[in-house]
């Protein structure tokens, strides 16, 4: 259905959607995704994101991660496999990812600012289910994300 495209949501519901700003690209194997927002704020290390993706049912959900654009890889092949295994539709990262050759075939959308080969080794604590603000958009737990080749939009509730 054409209305499930981000451009159509922006045209039909301009007062209800916010578009994530420029610079985010999809590196995952799914061309589009939509789902309820689950938020997590990280301090360079992705240990808490690993736990979330490995242990929670992701059906109908998109994880939104704020890593403050720190130049470390937040998501790679293993995390994408966890996301796929538990049914997550997509991940949006205010930061960087790696393992692009391996993740391009995993059917989960993965929006990020770019790539970085290194990860942050020391474990730091993340914060779950908090409001996040980056790229000119605000993401709150329970919001809804639609994402495709044109970009990412967020709204307070599902539109279709």
What key attributes describe this structure?
Glucose Oxidase, domain 1, three-stranded parallel sheet, single chain, nine-stranded mixed sheet, 14 strands, 18% helix, alpha/beta, 160 residues
Quaternary arrangement of the chains shown? single chain
Structural class: alpha/beta
Task: Estimate the global geometry from the Cα principal axes.
Answer: globular
Number of helices: 4
Our estimate of the beta-strand percent is 25-35%
Count of individual beta strands = 14
Q: Radius of gyration from the CA trace?
A: 14 Å
Mean pLDDT: 96
CATH fold assignment: Glucose Oxidase, domain 1
Q: Class in CATH?
A: Alpha Beta
Low-confidence parts lasting 5 or more residues at pLDDT below 50? none
Helix content: 10-25%
In brief, what are we looking at here?
This protein is α/β, with parallel strands linked by helices. Helices cover 18% and strands 34% of the residues.
